[in-house]
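Notes from hallway chat w/ T.B., transcribed later so I don't forget. T.B. wanted the structure written out for a chain they're using in a teaching module, and asked if we could keep both sequence and structure tokens in one place. Agreed to drop them here.
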Amino acid sequence: MHVLWRIDRILVALLVVTGLAGPPLESFAQQPEPKRAPTQRPAKPPAKPQTATKPKTDPAAAEAAMTPSQIGIPTAAQYAFMVDPQTSTVLLFKDADKPMHPSSMAKMMTVYLAFEELAAGRLKLDTRFQVSEKAWRMSRQGSTMYVGDPGTEVTVEDLIKGMIVLSGNDACIVVAEGIAGSEEGFADRMNKKAKELGMTGTVFKNASGWPADGQMTTAKDLALLAWHTVNDFPKFYHYYSITQWTHSNIKQDNRNLLLRQTPGVDGLKTGHTEEGGFGQTVSAVRDGRRLILVVNGLAMGKPQHEGGRERARETSRLLEWGFRDFTNTTLFKAGDTVAEAPVWLGAQDKVPLVTSRSVQMTLPTGQAASPRVVAKFDGPLPAPIAKGTKLGVAAVTLPDGRVMEYPLEAGVDVPRQGFVGRVISLARHYLVGWISS
């Protein structure tokens, strides 16, 4: 590529033949919506025989329940979204931007705000919140932690475990009232935070996900919240991997069956309401690669135990597909040189431009990467240059046409030339310019 260097600094684009890279945190929230395939109605099932001979978990019946996704494989879930957050690659998309009932998956936002208060030092794990009559009454319906009678004090740590492991609606009210004074005020904070995180299709009405008019979310929004939880609070995220917990002398298992059944699963939250069916937001890590999956609308009308098992089977099946059929390719490791930029009046003529973090892309297993990366910077770059100074970006065009940018910084210190060297460089520059004019 021929470039005309000028002292007034022009924009240079250096083409480096390498591969695609992954976009930064949460950029999958800004992805364009996928092209939707024509609506396909599932085939009408055959009439039932007079005498039922097939088991309830007949694989053929389960296969018939699968309906197409806009991206990825068919699933029995009404809504589904799977993403590799490291590269923001969407692997599965089924009506993931359409409104749905969040059920207990709304508790992830209540937990997120509790983690935020802990990280800011405004709460401590041994801070005690008092149980109100409203919270006590809620312990009589739905999932419960059994927080105790009105006036009882419960630690924040126990309340976090109660929300995550036991899915306690009563625990959510205690937390909401303890942080914001009322559940209504806390719901306002939930909505404000949702907006900050880019959850554009979400409206919270309460802290627990208890059915309420106008309370909606999307599978894509819940995946974004899950990724923020993992990324923003590594110190507290481990609470999501607790498999069982005892409170008030009552031992309860985490409804996230995948914590015990599927390798690599370390969170997050299940949900179930009559209106929304069975759902789950789950995250798993294998060999350093994380996937986040949200499903909802499974096993509509089925009882808790049967629907919970069906949810676990389908969620596990989708995760296994995501890990098996896709892999991540590292294009640049943190500190790798992407390009070299010319330096003006420096002790050396060029400075390496390096990435501050690993750059990856997600591909179908066995597929080789052969795209290109464009390094953009203003050059020549005037000396002195300190190592770590941001000097440009690496622009990467993804398969769907999106262009993502990654910061490029100086890989070494480049001091300025001495007086004599600067005089010689300036003389050479003006002499070459005069001769060529």
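Follow-up for T.B.: Residues 13-23+330-436 form a domain with the Peptidoglycan synthesis regulatory factor (PBP3), Domain 2 fold (CATH 2.60.410.10). Might be a good example for the class.
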